[in-house]
Every structure is written in C-alpha cells, then in structure tokens.
Design a protein that fits this description.
162 residues, single chain, mainly alpha
C-alpha cells in the first residue's frame, strides 16, 4: 500500500516536472525567462530523480543511470541559472542542461507508457520492437532540434531589457 502511494506521488511529481518543463522549453524558444515556471520545473525534476532512487530495486538499474545523469545535468543547469546568472557560456549550458533533464523525464515517461498502457504494451512488449524504438528516436530527434533552437533564441539579456 505504501509503495503504491509512493509511486502515485512520484508519478505526479514527474508529470508536473514534464508539464512545467514544456512550458519552460516553449518560453526558451520564445526568448523568455519564465522565472516562476523555471523554479517549478527544476524543483520537480530534481524531486523526480531523487524519489526514483527510493524504489526497492536490487542492484544498479538503467533507471538509476537515468536518474544519476539527470541529477548531474540538473546540477549544471541550476548552477548556470542561479549561480552564474546565465552569463556568457552559462546561458547555453543552462539551456542544454534543462533540455536534457526534460528529455530524460519524457524518455522515462515513454518507457512507462509502453509498460503500463495496454495498447502500447501490445505493440512493444519487450520495448525492442519498432513502435517503441521509432517513438524514442523521433522524440530524441525533436529534442535535439528544439535544444539547438532554444540555445540560439534564449537570450536573457533581451528578456531583462523588456
């Protein structure tokens, strides 16, 4: 019962992280800082990774690897955003770190969707089938493209001058 409640809380935090991350991403694409949304995104995405480590798995799993990578890139993004105030190269380090963290959340969301949604699970029961692979490849390609565009368009100096 406790594990079920914990899983629901973890999932809700993850969904808030993904939603707020998408808002932040579209803000970056529009050249806007969206400070409030950014705080929610960073906090909930850190919480997603941290709470993921408390599940009762034995040994080092791919989920732990994704969580560890996410925490590293989030650390860089948070330092770039708040410690270095997006100055110089820290601006694009923030964009790249934030977008990688969002991508990893979406990546795990897709994995979970193919595990838990019966229609998706039927198409890719082992997650080695083309529907799963194509979905992940398209998502990765889209995030690479959006990250490049965001790194070009997100200029906080202009946002502050408005």
């Amino acid at each position: 019962m406790i594990l079920r409640i914990y899983t629901i809380v973890h999932t809700l935090i993850s969904l808030v992280g993904i939603f707020s991350g998408l808002v932040v991403m579209f803000g970056m694409l529009a050249g806007k800082r969206l400070d409030g949304w950014t705080k929610w995104f960073l906090i909930t995405t850190v919480l997603t990774s941290v709470t993921g480590f408390a599940f009762p798995f034995h040994g080092f799993t791919p989920a732990y690897a994704v969580g560890a990578i996410s925490l590293v890139v989030l650390g860089i993004a948070i330092f770039a955003r708040y410690g270095r105030q997006l100055a110089g190269p820290w601006r694009w380090l923030y964009v790249i770190g934030a977008m990688i963290a969002l991508y990893l959340n979406v990546f795990v969301g897709i994995v979970q969707a193919f595990l838990k949604i019966p229609a998706l699970h039927a198409m890719a029961p082992t997650q080695t089938e083309p529907p799963f692979q194509i979905t992940q490849l398209v998502t990765l390609g889209l995030f690479v493209l959006l990250t490049i565009i965001a790194a070009i368009r997100f200029r906080p100096e202009r946002a502050l001058a408005r």
